[in-house]
Amino acid sequence: MATRGRLVGLDGIRGLAALFVVLHHCWLLPFPGFPVNGAPAWSSWLLYGHFAVVIFIVLSGFSLGVSPARHDWQLGSARTFAQRRAWRILPPYWAALAFSLIVAWTVIPQPGQPVPTGKSVVIFGLLLQDVFGSPSPNGALWSIAVEAQLYFALPLMLLVLRRWGAAVMLGSVTAIVVVVGALAPAVPAVELLMRFTPQFAALFAMGAVCAGIVRASERVERLPWHWFAAAAAVPVLALIVFAGPVWVVGQFFWVDLAIGPAAGLLLVGVATGKPIWLVRLLDTRPLRRLGSFSYSLYLIHSPIVVMLHKFVGGSGVPTFLVMLAVAVPVCVAAAWLFASVFELPFQRHRSWKGLREAVRARFT
Questions:
Q1: Distances in whole angstroms, Cα of residue 273 to Cα of each of 15, 94, 169, 228
Q2: What is the pLDDT of residues 171-204, one digit of tens each?
Q3: For 220-268, what is each residue's pLDDT tens digit?
Q4: CB 216 within 8 A of CB 269
Q5: Residue 320 and residue 40: Cα distance in Å, rounded?
Q6: How many CB atoms neighbour CB 192 within 10 A?
Q7: Angle at 144 (CA atoms; ends 262, 59), nearest 5 degrees
Q8: Rounded CA gap, 210 and 208, in Å?
Q9: How many CA atoms lie within 13 A of 158 on its CB side?
Q10: Measured between alpha carbons, how far is residue 119 from residues 135, 137, 149 in Å?
């Protein structure tokens, strides 16, 4: 049941989403010209790595909504929540930023980006990369700033949800986002808001609302949520296939919003154990393990992929296959080592005191 213990399968989703982003970047370099698709048709699905970030945002809202949902939508102390989030995301983020800067300064900058500057260090270090422009040392770090900003919105979302219900909260957030998207092409002041990817606020709210499944009745849990997810996904997938990548990339704002319900319903289905075969697959040891350091994999894979492509060189299918064979295992292994130092210890120990004692015990 979704109301008890660990929600099986979520780590597997995290791991697969992170791995998909790695595959996407391994695909981009051998087939330049994005979003124009010059790759063979059998690999075209790898063009849409952006949608893995959509899954991450919905999953983030869901994961952070589970505990409040189990406690009448009470988040607890905002200060404690902020401290726990900072403890969870900042140490690996700052370490990944340092690694990315070193690669960009000494080996190769990110494609289409100049060498990072001191301004880059400050802006990315403060998670303000979606507010101020500067050369990026890592093409994957943009979404971390967006997610960090959503953490500040979560207490307000939960307050609205508590007082007026899930429909009002999700509806109001989505309505505001839709108005921004509709006005942006005609109103320059509103268009400035698009750099914050405002659709992610609606996706995050969708995830938080879907976390309410952990307090639902058994009758509601037994509903075929996975089929609801499939029904929501089919029209969007059809649109993506028939509209083509140039249109889809140009309309990410609206397509992201369209994907949100399917992603949220999928999480509800997995949380309630449906479909069984998928939940069992997601809960296999390799996928659980991959999910445990998926954040690190997301953070550091881009500089590694770019470095490896510099040494592999070339374009087309042969280069792509070499990148798959070399870059994917290297990224996974490097992310596991990175997480062992900069991510997993901060998950196991919730304070500097606990972390210092654990380190001292390990080396004495």
A1: 18, 36, 26, 14
A2: 999 999 999 999 999 999 899 999 999 999 999 9
A3: 999 999 999 999 999 999 999 999 999 999 999 999 999 999 999 999 9
A4: no
A5: 11
A6: 10
A7: 25
A8: 5
A9: 27
A10: 8, 11, 20
